[in-house]
Amino acid sequence: MCGIIGYTGPRQAAPILLDALKKLEYRGYDSAGMAVISLDAIQVRKMRGRLQLLANMTRDGRDLPGTVGIGHTRWATHGEPSYYNSHPHLSSSGRFAVVHNGIIENYRPLKDMLIAKGYTFLSATDTEVISNLMEYCDQGDLARTLMAAVKHLQGSYALGVLSADEPDRIAAVRRDSPLIVGRGEGENFIVSDIPAILSLTRDVYLMKDGEVALLDPEKITFFDPYGEQFDKESFHVDWDVSAAEKGGYEHFMMKEMMEQPTALRETIRPRIKDGRFVLDGLQLDPDWVKSLSMVHIVACGSAYHAGRLGKNLLEGRLGIPVDVDIASEFRYRQPILKPEHLVVIISQSGETADSIAALREAKGKGVKTLAIVNVVGSTIAREADYTLYTWAGPEIAVATTKGYTTQVAALALLTCCLAQERGQMSGEELQQMEALLMKLPDAAEEVLSDHKEVQRLASLFFNHKDIFFIGRGIDYSLSLEGSLKLKEISYIHSEAQPAGELKHGTISLIQPGTLVIALATGKRLRDKTISNIQEVRARGAVVLALCLEHDEEIESVADHVLRVPFLCEELEPILAILPLQLFAYYVAALNGNDVDKPRNLAKSVTVE
Ligand code: G6P
Hints:
With 608 residues, the chain is of the alpha/beta class. The protein is built from 20 helices and 27 strands. The chain folds into three domains: 3-238, Glutamine Phosphoribosylpyrophosphate, subunit 1, domain 1 (4-Layer Sandwich); 252-448, Glucose-6-phosphate isomerase like protein, domain 1 (Rossmann fold, 3-Layer(aba) Sandwich); 452-590, Glucose-6-phosphate isomerase like protein, domain 1 (Rossmann fold, 3-Layer(aba) Sandwich), CATH 3.40.50.10490. 36% of the residues lie in helices and 22% in strands. Bound molecules: 6-O-phosphono-alpha-D-glucopyranose. The site of 6-O-phosphono-alpha-D-glucopyranose has 16 residues, from helix 10.
């Protein structure tokens, strides 16, 4: 996600900004920029691409004079990576400059309002409304102007703002996006993440939602959300830098697992407006939506597993066949595609070679394509007819976690949107689904809040040679992902079987002591799975069951039990995968493996 830095002090700002932006690179970005005040005017340098290009362009910042500035690495959300969409954004007159991390949900009406008042826009971003709002709300005082401007904003933001009229100052505010203020000796900073300024200061202020900071070189003034000045306590950082880059977590995978509630919130919340499902980027022709007769979901790896859950959602609500295929198979099998079909390509990176080829194959046959992608501006996002983004933020660990859960959430949103347009969900059903989707991030937070039992179980089984997963229906699709997660990072042989298929071969591998992880979260098929649990236990297997809370009967048939709260059958997999991700993580960590970069695997598979 975007990175923000700001500096005010006696030194030249641009080299300091560049150095800090370098340390924010790990957050993921596709363009970078800086704004510096020099001779009472704001100078901006920005560009698409790596930070090194910006460093080259400004001779490591030396060509950009001025001692007050803000910098930004942009991870595109609204608008492709480009010069105009890069931050900082200037107001129409060039007197205000803004860097932003987050999403302004109501930017469209704000933009319309500002255009009607004569403000001009150069970018497709949501952020540019903020620089123009600063000018619109100008109170002749930077902090007060910022307070007035943010009153108009809905959504999430961390903001750093400059005004040419107050050339020593930076104002900053945050809501639901990270922002920290750093206090130096005669110089002060704003930053997205503490590690980026640890070489400059270890005294920081952790900003709360709605608080505004006004930074001069010699002092920092804080205002509460009501505009009252207050004294804020600073915090001395004594952690080591490398741990801090991972937000204090030992591995990116753990950090990303813990980010899932936020990633789900960001993916779901902007898509539900006034009781309706509104998917940005999806202007589907209503007559075509009604004529839709089949959906083909195509993806690789975990995205394919997410697609299998999408089949359950789409078939259940739309009553049309949904085919799910692995991209490397789909591209060569000459699928039967018709104009009233939709091909959905799912890809976290948007760069997986087989998924790109499958997309092109479908487009070549004249079928409409829709991509569910996390990385903005990636090949799949650009080439598909429609793109629905998962707002998971950059995923660094090779084993996907938040990428996968947000893909399933996006499929649920797509299902509801199509069912709504086809008149297949009543107002009441839509409302129910909306309420459940809104609850989902908190429920995920609850599941992730306590891992002691998962950790204990991992310590019992981390040295096993084979681990089997079984489940039926959506629990089978989920067990495929649980098993993949485990084998890719722990290097333990694992396979997932439909529980009813076990007797047709795989049960011959069950010996006394073999671990079988049985998933029984789907109410409809749970009893059948219990019978399969009995079968493997009769052959000496140790069974770890994953079931819903209050399912007492499972206790009597399984050796160990993990529970997840019940939300609803269709969305349950998003909660149920969380303990399995944690289990895989702890097993891999106990084996001393490189959790974030498992052997032989790549984050993005760009070759066939
Ligand atoms: C690799 C990654 C997986 C991912 C798969 C598909 O194998 O390690 O985590 O699920 O590629 O990637 P995509 O970017 O297309 O979702």
